[in-house]
Amino acid sequence: QVQLVESGGGLVQAGGSLRLSCAASGRTFNSYAMGWFRQAPGKEREFVAAGTCSSSSTYYADSVKGRFTISRDNAKNTVYLQMNSLKPEDTAVYYCASHVGGSVYSLSAYAYWGQGTQVTVSS
To answer: Is the pLDDT confidence value at 46 over 90?
Structure first.
């Protein structure tokens, strides 16, 4: 059984930083790409970032490019999302997901999801 558990969310002022973590189990972690998505109140879940198995390739939404960094520690079965220069519009529940096939930008490419962690950025 695949399990993804996010942590690291919280309340931060605009311009601040947070690092989200996602611990994975139940699947050969270093064989699959991992992604981060977010969902703000009243909005659809959207792609934030993804990284391949070895982190040799990373992908970002335009809205976070240059501010967020995805990384992973395969020895710890953990993927991270470092978020800098946070803005109020980054407020959302953040989810990590394990890729199974297809475009890393697409929700349908991920079969396993965490429960989410709340990030709130105050102005």
So the answer is: yes
Hey, which residues does 40 pair with through a beta bridge? none
pLDDT in tens, 52-100: 988 789 999 999 999 999 999 999 999 999 999 999 999 999 999 999 9
33/21 Cα distance (integer angstroms):
15
Per cent of the chain over pLDDT 90 is: 89
Six-digit token string for 67: 């501010």
Of 54, 27, 7, the closest CA to residue 110 belongs to: 27
